UniProtKB/TrEMBL annotation:
InterPro entries: AB_hydrolase_1, AB_hydrolase_fold, Sec-Metab_Biosynth_Hydrolase. The keyword Hydrolase applies. Keywords: Hydrolase. The lineage of its organism: Bacteria, Bacillati, Actinomycetota, Actinomycetes, Kitasatosporales. One of its GO terms (molecular function) is hydrolase activity. This is Putative hydrolase. SUPFAM superfamilies: alpha/beta-Hydrolases. It comes from Streptomyces lydicamycinicus.
Amino acid sequence: MATFVLVPGAWLGAWAWEATAHALRERGHTALPVTLTGLGERSALATPEVGLDTHIDDITAFVVEQDLRDVTLVAHSYAAVPVTGAAGRLGPRLERLVYLDSAPFAEGTCLLDVMSGDVVDQLHRQVAEHGDGWRLPLPPFELLSTFSTLEGLDEDQLDLMRTRATSQPFSTFEQRLVRTDELGPDVDRVVVACHDAKALLDAGMPTLAFLNQPPWRRFHLPTGHWPMLSTPVELAKTLDAVVSSGGSGF
């Protein structure tokens, strides 16, 4: 059985993983959702100084302080950036790296680099007008859907996001990944692609082409960008398949 450390994307806390974590535990796995500094139940710790490095430290400390071994580290959305930074630090503690509807980031890049200029401008306006110049509240769904599909979310799930989401310290989007340590050669590398990411991978997008080749394995989850809310049990089944399938993917 596997030990999953589940890292949520922007605006979310460990709460977002509750149903998936429960389903993983029913299958005999250890499932440990993480809340990053300034988010969820840790929102009181939010300051303008909370940045990408803070979240890299959060993930590293979570694994090391609990003395976790053979970890399957799962990164959803924004979490791909700090998880990329933390993964190499974990050394032999890390067994598997899973990017959930996300992908590893290169040194010197940040989350805003993968967004269009128009979206970046709108996010800056949100921060200036509604976030005291340093916080990014959950954008209106009309804006959010332009870069993160809401497919599969019903009104109850959208309301849950709206009421439980917390503002994201914007420095976490702006700060560039300074240095990433090399992963060990034996680390299993996996992408779980939802609909939009699958389309990009199938189209052979040049910047993502490496994810279609070994040592990467691909799995598909037929839903939108927030599978821990839209299809939490199916997500758990997919993650179970990831750890039980050896070297195969689909």
